[in-house]
Amino acid sequence: MDSQIHKIHQQLVSKDISCTALIQEKLDLLKPNKHHTVNSLLDTLALDLASKVDAKIANGESIGLLEGIPFGIKDVYMVQGTYTTASSNLLKHYKSAYTATAIQKLLDAGAIPVVKENCDSFGHGSSSENTIFGAVKNAIDPNLVGGGSSGGSAVNVAKDYTVFSIGGDTGGSVRQPAGYNKVYGLKPTYGRISRYGLMAYASSTDCVGPIAKSLEDIRIVLNVMSGKDIKDQTSYDSKPIFESNISNTENIKTIGYFKNFIESDAIDDQVKADFLTAIEKIKAKGMQVKALDFFESETLVSTYYTLAMAETASNLSRLDGTNYGNRIEAENLKETYAVTRSENFSEETKRRIVGGNQVLSQGFADEIYLKALAIRDQISANFENDFKEVDIILSPVTPNTPPKIGDSLKDPLAMYLSDAYTVGFSLGQLPTLTLPQGTTTGLQITGAKTNDELVLKFANFLKNIL
Ligand code: GLN
User: C-alpha angle with apex 179: 4 to 140, nearest 5 degrees?
Assistant: First the structure.
């Protein structure tokens, strides 16, 4: 699939389509909400912005590459004046007071937001069923889940309801739904894109991530959103990635993969066979392939969930109905907090808050939380050693194919284990991309920290040989 952004840009410039007609077309596609991807439509804002783009074109003024391009936003990003619900009852009526940096940069480049997208509440989930707006349906088979937590965003891109969408990835929430719906999804290096205005789930792994149908569109959108932001002290400055820089395979000699991921009993037979076929095709192109040792899935998943739950329990403690959210009055202030939170948070979110407070509490923190931090350090050290030996690590995105709608809700533990291949790279804060080829749920390409360019470069090579 070629760049949609370049194609639409040409059509706008040559007046084959008007921006208003383009935006109206996307709004008409989104409105029936067949896949439950829409939390709110930004129709008034989008049409107003479109008429300005049309006026510019009519005046003979030049427009930027992203100007007039319709995109979607996971409903966890602040966009001033729009509802930002995190798919929760608690924030059902909350309107953003300001705009997230990443989104502001896209607005400044002229891109047009058309929809706030359905997702797992506060990013808590792997299926986009933990939402008050109805389970997101998979773009390919609507009986299956859309994936999560950025399910609405991935499905909108896959169905061409948006040209690209901005998801959020804490432990796989861009990569996994991208894989489930056969589109590209990138979790950049932690800090490459400012988190300011992205509702905090687990601050130490939260990343802004683009989802699109082509690698080129991922590259364009990534470049626009990247950069140091004084409002996020973990953000850093990076150089733009040029198309010419990713068009060869220079510097890529050795590919690694984790033996235990592929030898695990939990992996689907077909996913395993397809992954090994991909490895053979890479070898046939003259690259070296190395099998690497890595932590067991159970260790990765329990370390990730220990830290993610601890961080989300802290981050969500501000949501007590005082400054934000649906306040439910009770007999006294303490009761008001309790009732507001227990009535308005979902079961899954409450499970995580309870778990998180438990692992942080006196008497448990040393045994559980600090231990998880120590294992995280070992995971990072392991990655550092790996990248002395290999240039890229390749893995399946998920061990299994997307479950049927309803199944994950019955078995939260199975849902957590389905994140086995994505969460490790999040703990390492590494750049990782879902390429929608290779296995039914795609392949994950990971590079060393800040080496997002190499990830795109390898994806560009791999997409042509699979
Ligand atoms: N499925 C993982 C979780 O529930 C990842 C979610 C995410 O990246 N937001 O924590």
Answer: 75
From the alpha carbon of 148, which atom of ligand 1 is closest? 1
Ligand 1 site, residue 123, Cβ cutoff 6 A? yes
Tell me the mean pLDDT per 10 residues along the chain, length 466: 94 98 98 98 98 98 98 98 98 97 98 99 98 98 98 99 98 98 98 98 98 98 98 98 93 96 95 98 97 97 98 97 93 96 98 97 94 98 98 98 95 91 98 98 98 98 97
Strand 112-117 to 70-74 pairing: parallel
How far apart are alpha carbons 397 and 374 in whole angstroms? 25
CA proximity to 348, closest of 177, 168, 121, 169: 121
- What is the set of domains in the chain, with CATH numbers? 22-245 (3.90.1300.10)
For ligand 1, whether the C-beta of 419 sits within 6 Å is: yes
**Is this prediction's pTM over 0.85?**
yes
CA–CA distance, 312 with 195 (Å, rounded to integer): 15
Q: Which helix (H) or strand (E) holds 443?
A: strand 443-446
138 DSSP 8-state letter: P
H helices present in 35-87, as ranges: 43-58
The active-site residue, picked from 74, 116, 213, 457, is 74
Atom of ligand 1 nearest to the CA of 205: 8
C-alpha separations of 246 from 219, 249, 250 in Å: 10, 8, 9
Q: Kindly name the residue from 149, 150, 165, 426 that is annotated as catalytic.
A: 149
Query: How far is C-alpha 463 from the chain's CA centre?
Result: 21
Whether 74 is a known active-site residue: answer yes
DSSP-assigned states of every residue in 233-254: TT----PPPPGGGGSS-TT--E
